[in-house]
Amino acid sequence: MKGKNGLFTQGMISGGTIGDPPIDTRHGPKTKSFGYQVLGFGSGGGPSTYLVQYLVIAGGAAGNNYYGGGGGGAGGYRTIASKLFEVTKCESYPIQVGAGGPNSPSGTGPGPDWPSIQAQRAGEPSIFSSITSAGGGSGGKYDQNAGAQGGSGGGGGSGGPPGFGGDGGQGNIPAIPAPLGGPQGNPGAKGAQEAGGGAGGAGATGQAAPGLRTAGAGGDGSPSTISGSDVQRGGGGGGGGYYLGTPGAGGAGGGGTGGAPPGGSSTGGQANTGGGAGGSGGVAAQGFPSQPGGSGVVYIRRLTADSCSTSGSTSTCGSDTIHAFTGDGTFVA
After folding, report:
1. Exposed end of the chain (fewer CB within 10 Å): N or C?
2. What pLDDT is recorded for position 176?
């Protein structure tokens, strides 16, 4: 995994200090120029800090491809609706954009190695400064296996006899409260006989599989206007339906659709939305590999007058400048 707590720098939200910074975050670090302390006046200074808005979306998870697999959970989705996060001018803030969970070229059935295989299909976290969004949890497999927890939880795997099926994975793990941009996601839903459950999305819980060979839909994502237009991101992946079954639809906002033999494979999550991939109905040997989750994205929005930063890919909207990161980088405030 990339990006660790040791890289985090300070920030402040609504008067509450984040982390344990070595300097006064209310006034910023003291700097010197030509032997004199810069006080913000008489030296071409001005305020040393300003406030930004953020949207940090992690990578969505891959679905599962073992006979009615659950959909992949959407990547964690953390945002604040207005400029409340404090940054210090000229300071560098690390950016990590999480990759989607990788696809699996082979179908892996029940066995003692499954927990590690399921964990490998999770999405990667995304990070801006002290703000971390967790990757989505992968879907469950056949034989009542549960979906994994994560930013949004994976859908439960299918079961054999009527009435059986794995539970959906929990979302918003680790739990993030609303003042810090949470909750970051929703749980996945239960599978049914020969049908996977839908995974959780940023805006809604996944849909439980309705019944025999009929898979559940992924939960919808959440809309945001931080990029300058209203865009929905973070949809959960739909569950896979067994042979001649009905696959689940992907959640709005980049979630992949489930697949069912013999007509088609599942689809992956959409790039830079954190969307989860759909679960498959069969194994790779039958032409149904699992699909990858969608990669994440990081947006930072500020008043244009506050800084001349050109970090990331920049655009403007009214009096604001928007910084977009679709890969790892650094935001220099």
Report:
1. N
2. 94
Q: Which residues contact 57 (CB under 8 A, 6 or more apart)?
A: 75, 76, 77, 78, 126, 133, 202, 233, 234, 273, 274, 296, 297, 298
Facing residues of 53 across strands? Answer: 301
Segment 264-294, tens digit of pLDDT: 789 999 999 999 999 988 776 676 778 999 9
pTM, full prediction: 0.85
Q: What residue spans of the chain are helical by DSSP H?
A: 114-120
Q: Quick check: 323 and 314 in contact, CB under 8 A?
A: yes
| Structure letter (DSSP) for residue 284 | G
Terminal CA-to-CA distance of the chain, rounded, Å? 25
Taken in order 173, 179, 185, 190, the sign of the CA dihedral is positive
pLDDT at 191: 96
CA distance 5 to 324: 22
User: Mean pLDDT across the stretch 27-49?
Assistant: 42
DSSP conformational letter for 317: E
From the CB of residue 309, how many other CB atoms can be counted at a distance below 10 Å?
Answer: 18
Phi and psi at 115, nearest 5°, equal -55, -40
Which residues are bridge partners to 87 per DSSP?
Answer: 50
Does pLDDT of 140 surpass 70? yes
Instruction: Specify the 3-state DSSP secondary structure of 304.
Output: helix
